[in-house]
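Quick one:
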Amino acid sequence: MDILEKIGTCGIVPVVVIDDAKDAVPTARALLAGGVDVMEITLRTAAGLDAIRAVAAGCPEMCVGAGTVLTLDQGKAAVEAGAKFIVSPGFDQELVEWCVANGVAVT
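Output:
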């Protein structure tokens, strides 16, 4: 199953704002316990990338993505941290083209 199918099957994608990366894995585990295996961690805080990295490493059964991605550099950093998908509040052609070329789901 690809990432977009997984998101569609989940039915809900919680948008999570993490202020302290130490809270990321417990949050992911709580979502999994509730039957939700997809989460979007926003890049609206300084802890966003570290939170994605922590979930990707510490809770591999969670499909973690990055939200509020505004630039190509943020998208690249999020994927490097372990994000499986990118959510951008606006259309950035360069970001979309990079995601498509690199097999990263983008919405």
